[in-house]
Design a protein that fits this description.
The protein is mainly α. The chain contains 8 helices and 5 strands, in the order βαβαααβαβααβα.
């Protein structure tokens, strides 16, 4: 299970890990979009962040119950206390990324709803607020700055329990 802020590489690494491990890949943001029938950015605008977080929590709950492979959680999914409880006992990998790398990966012209006004400042604030939660939930922390996905996947695979 991969957690981390926007731009940490959860989706990219999730797909790569699923290939290496011969397991399925599931992204809870994609699950939310499938249930809502619209992109995350539209859910925020049309239905509000509270509704998005409800859908996100339900997507995580369902994915943990149904999916046995690699799971990538949306950056804010860990903020929900019930979601935090659901993650206990799972092999949670926190993908830690610095602000400069996150900005480069996300882009400042991003369609990400929480980064609309002053994206660099908003991303920094999100990262600082969420870091303690990511660190507390993680079994393993992997620093992704200036590293290639293949190298990161190798490190994660080596750190998996036998």
């Amino acid at each position: 299970m991969l957690i981390g802020p926007p731009g940490s590489g959860k989706s990219t690494l999730g797909r790569l890990l699923s290939e290496r491990l011969g397991l399925g890949f599931r992204d809870t943001d994609a699950d939310v979009e499938a249930v809502a029938g619209k992109p995350v950015s539209d859910i925020f605008v049309e239905d509000g962040e509270t509704r998005f977080r409800e859908l996100e929590h339900e997507a995580v709950r369902r994915a943990l119950a149904e999916h046995d492979g690699v799971l990538s959680l949306g950056g804010g999914a860990v903020l929900h206390e019930e979601t935090q409880a659901l993650l206990a006992g799972h092999h949670v990998v926190y993908l830690q990324v610095g602000l400069a790398d996150a900005v480069q990966r996300v882009g400042l012209a991003s369609a990400r709803p929480l980064l609309v006004l002053n994206p660099r400042s908003q991303l920094k604030k999100l990262m600082e607020e969420r870091r303690p939660v990511y660190e507390r939930l993680a079994v393993v922390t992997v620093v992704t700055d200036k590293r290639e996905p293949e190298e990161l996947a190798d490190e994660i695979v080596k750190g998996l329990p036998a």
